């Protein structure tokens, strides 16, 4: 039997568009050329690859400030005003996150303290955002094997993509990481069925007859007839897997 080894999936994108964020990836224990996912205890825990790492993007403030310098022209602008940069990407790829933008009080020459812009309408520099709800794979218990023998006997379980948020919003499988989808069918690992063994049967019975009446010595007599209306042994064809 082949030894189980660790298998890694590609790193996700950095969780932020500027500054310091995180990247993650899926790590699973697999066996054989079919890459069947098995329990992690079958792999060497001391060599398990990392699932998270730090990623660093451009400094957020300098990035937004440069954008303001490029997009804001001093012509036809009030002497003192709010200079506003673009919104950053949402801080999270799923669930509730935030977006930020640089808002600077300035005149046509330089940046000023916010005090000089207090008479102006307030401009938000932070807002809530959500690209999509967070979701993860959930699994149900394994069902009994489809047969009692045979190398092709399998067991199934429910695998679904469900939201981690409190909302009841229905999720599609594409909302979860398809590369990390748990198995929904597995082999039972049963031996081959014996050759030439007669098929098994099963007794099927009907209801008992009702009370019957008859006349004996000019008297009506009642007797319970305990007889089966149906007593058949039905042979069920058993699927064989060779």
Automatic annotation (TrEMBL):
Record keywords, A-Z: Repeat, Secreted, Signal
PANTHER family listed in its UniProt record: ADAM METALLOPEPTIDASE WITH THROMBOSPONDIN TYPE 1 MOTIF A, ISOFORM B, ADAMTS A DISINTEGRIN AND METALLOPROTEASE WITH THROMBOSPONDIN MOTIFS PROTEASE
Official protein name in the record: Thrombospondin type-1 domain-containing protein 7A
GO BP, sorted A to Z: anatomical structure morphogenesis; extracellular matrix organization; proteolysis
GO cellular component, one term: extracellular region
Subcellular location: Secreted
SUPFAM superfamilies reported in the protein's UniProt record: TSP-1 type 1 repeat (SSF82895)
Pfam families: TSP1_ADAMTS
A molecular function GO annotation: metalloendopeptidase activity
SMART domains named among the record's database cross-references: TSP1
The organism's place on the tree of life at top rank: Eukaryota
